From TrEMBL, chain A:
InterPro entries listed in its UniProt record: AAA+_ATPase (IPR003593), ABC_transporter-like_ATP-bd (IPR003439), ABC_transporter-like_CS (IPR017871), ABC_transporter_ATP-bind (IPR050166), P-loop_NTPase (IPR027417)
Gene3D superfamilies the UniProt entry points to: P-loop containing nucleotide triphosphate hydrolases
Matching CDD domains: ABC_NrtD_SsuB_transporters
Protein name listed in UniProt: NitT/TauT family transport system ATP-binding protein
MF annotations from Gene Ontology: ATP binding; ATP hydrolysis activity
Record family assignment: Belongs to the ABC transporter superfamily.
Keywords: ATP-binding, Nucleotide-binding, Transport
Naturally occurring in which organism (per UniProt): Tropicimonas isoalkanivorans
Superkingdom field: Bacteria
ABC transporter domain: residues covered: 8-240
SUPFAM superfamilies: P-loop containing nucleoside triphosphate hydrolases (SSF52540)
One family name in Pfam for this protein: ABC_tran
From TrEMBL, chain B:
PANTHER family named among the record's database cross-references: ABC TRANSPORTER PERMEASE PROTEIN MJ0413-RELATED (PTHR30151:SF0), ALKANE SULFONATE ABC TRANSPORTER-RELATED, MEMBRANE SUBUNIT (PTHR30151)
Pfam families linked to this entry: BPD_transp_1 (PF00528)
InterPro entries, per database record: MetI-like (IPR000515), MetI-like_sf (IPR035906)
Membrane topology annotation: Multi-pass membrane protein
Keyword Nucleus annotated: no
Record organism: Tropicimonas isoalkanivorans
Main location: membrane
Sorted UniProt keywords: Cell membrane, Membrane, Transmembrane, Transmembrane helix, Transport
Region (Disordered): 1-28
Homology family: Belongs to the binding-protein-dependent transport system permease family.
Transmembrane segments: 48-67, 95-116, 136-154, 161-177, 225-245, 257-282
Domain ABC transmembrane type-1 per the UniProt entry, residue ranges: 95-275
Name of this protein: NitT/TauT family transport system permease protein
Keyword Cell membrane: yes
Length: 264, 290
């Protein structure tokens, strides 16, 4: 997939959840945006604005009430291996070693054993878990387990990597490392990513484009391209020193506040 | 430092490196610490002590003539009888028959309950069909089927196996179904987004995820199977441990009855240990958790 071209399109998507007894809640309304191929798109917005809902619809784990989502021109209808997903909660398969976890997707998709091993090895190295390939997930720290989940998803070769607050449960330092790792992965693997977060710094660091959702129901409030970065920045320290960083952070913070206040 | 001197008996000084190795001693733990885990020595001592106390009181009661010797024989006599039963009176074959019944009936129950429970926990449609049936049967006490089972199957092995099967299977299905439902949704969704089809999710994710809990459920229900076995053998059998105990009752052999009880208890304990071993062996990845 060549850069610049739309890899994923969200078209007038609305979603209402049925709460039973005839009551429904409208989570997102008429959301439209594009994710360019090989880019990192960050979904940002206050808590409860529908970020997870949008991402889960992209993954095919929820069905839009109306509107359409398409990947590479194909209509999204249920989950599939072309869209890998990393959750906030730990999803390691505890009964499998790190290596078998990473091979899991390829195995169920019938990738031959030799290729499977080779690819698994590559992605285990990429996320820095070379020494732990034969360990069980229960022997790893939270950050390491999340890296297993990322390696497992990437090794399966998805066109799009969807991540829902993947580093939310991690301590600050591990979170930086993981964010830098994601930039590294994006550079090395040409994977399109959609990342949900409500951490402003994380959003600015990772995003080629930020889609800001307003809340109740979630709508696209603004699309922001952090041009001050002029491309990607590999190192977080470098980022906060760039002029333009604090302006953008200030703007996003203001938008967050505004959204938050609207409901008090 | 004081701890070291106490242990070594004499207040001589240890070589320096030795000292540094033992110096960071913890303050002595109280025996009755509130929610403080006890160490292995204390655990073993306590376990031995409670049984020593039990047998001690029993022996004293017998020796002092406080209890009727005919109704409560002394522990040493019960143990002697147990030995005699095994060595000279073919009790071993009764025990083997009982074990065989439990193992066969329990294996049959598991062969049905595990696949069915996992399917019911994975597919609400399967649950909707079977659960109304299963939960109704759970409330029927298995022994109430004994008369009808005897009429249907006569006095062979079938009614005993059937009683054990009925007594265990409905609880086992429910337990396994509930554990299966508790498999985290994220694991299922992860598998789906990796491209797994429904059958693959069940076989490769839900089943291995729930397996440790299935083994725990089996361990719990096996204890119940022993209970039903003894009921079946006491009511309607000429072989097995329970039957031996009923024969002994006719001849007022209280020592043989007590011997039977001890053997049943020992077997229960043995099977429980066996399951604990299987658990450790089959799920090495759980050993390091937390
Ligand atoms: N399965 C569901 N059933 C009912 N309502 C739901 C469901 N999932 C989400 N919602 C509702 O949809 C709205 C958006 O939820 P969503 O989880 O997408 O928000 P979010 O932006 O991810 O929030 P957070 O940042 O706290 O994770 C909320 O009002 C929530 O209550
Ligand atoms: Mg969310």
């Amino acid at each position: 997939m060549s850069g610049g071209q739309s890899a994923l399109g969200v078209r007038h998507v609305s979603k209402s959840f049925d709460l039973g007894k005839g009551r429904t809640v409208e989570a997102v309304r008429d959301v439209t945006f594009d994710v360019e191929g090989n880019s990192i798109c960050v979904l940002l917005g206050p808590s409860g604005c529908g970020k997870s809902t949008v991402l889960r619809m992209m993954a095919g784990l929820e069905t839009p009430t109306s509107g359409e989502i398409a990947i590479g021109g194909r209509h999204v209808d249920g989950p599939g291996r072309d869209r890998g997903m990393v959750f906030q909660a730990y999803t390691s398969f505890d009964w499998l070693s790190v290596r078998s976890n990473v091979e899991f997707g390829m195995k169920i998709n019938g990738v031959p054993a030799a290729e499977r091993r080779e690819r698994a090895e590559r992605f285990i190295q990429l996320v820095g878990l070379g020494k732990f390939a034969d360990a069980y997930p229960s022997q790893l720290s939270g950050g390491m387990r999340q890296r297993v989940a990322i390696a497992r998803t990437l090794a399966n070769g998805p066109e799009v990597l969807l991540m829902d607050e993947p580093f939310g449960a991690l301590d600050a330092e591990t979170r930086w490392l993981m964010q830098e790792l994601m930039i590294d992965v994006a550079e090395k693997t040409d994977t399109t990513m959609v990342i949900v977060t409500h951490d402003l710094e994380e959003a600015i660091f990772l995003a080629d484009k930020i889609v800001f959702l307003s809340s109740h129901p979630g709508r696209v409030k603004k699309e922001i391209v952090p041009t001050f970065k002029s491309g990607r920045v590999a190192d977080k320290e470098q980022l906060v020193r760039l002029s333009g960083y604090s302006d953008l952070e200030g703007e996003l913070m203001h938008m967050m506040r505004e959204e938050g206040r609207g409901h008090e | 430092m004081t701890e070291v001197q106490e242990r070594s008996g004499a207040p001589h000084t240890l070589p320096d490196h030795d000292r540094s190795a033992v110096t960071p001693t913890m303050p002595r733990k109280p025996i009755f610490g509130l929610r403080t885990p006890v160490g292995r020595p204390q655990r073993v001592t306590s376990a031995v002590a409670v049984w020593a106390l039990f047998f001690g009181v029993w022996m004293l009661a017998s020796a002092s003539g406080l209890v009727n010797e005919l109704l409560v024989p002394a522990p040493q006599q019960v143990f002697a009888t147990t030995w005699d039963l095994f060595a000279h009176r073919g009790f071993g074959s009764d025990v083997l028959i009982s074990i065989g019944r439990v193992v066969v009936a329990f294996a049959m129950a598991c062969a049905v309950a595990i696949p069915l429970g996992v399917m019911m926990g994975s597919f609400p449609a399967v649950e909707a069909f079977f659960n109304p049936f299963v939960s109704a049967w759970r409330y029927l006490p298995a022994p109430s089927f004994i008369p009808i089972l005897l009429m249907w199957f006569g006095t062979g092995e079938a009614p005993k196996l059937a009683l054990l099967f009925i007594g265990v299977i409905f609880f086992l299905i429910t337990l396994i179904m509930d554990h299966t439902k508790n498999v985290r949704e994220e694991l299922v969704e992860t598998a789906l987004t990796l491209g797994a089809k429904r059958a693959t999710v069940v076989r490769k994710v839900i089943f291995p995820a729930v397996l440790p809990d299935v083994v725990v459920a089996m361990r719990q229900m096996l204890a119940m199977a022993w209970t039903y076995l003894v009921i079946a053998e006491i009511v309607a059998s000429t072989t097995g441990i329970g039957a031996m105990m009923m024969r002994a009752r006719r001849f007022l052999k209280t020592d043989e009855i007590l011997a039977g009880i001890i053997v049943i208890g020992a077997l229960g304990l043995l099977f429980d240990l066996l399951f604990a071993l299987i658990y450790r062996w089959a799920f090495p990845y759980l050993r390091t958790q937390r």
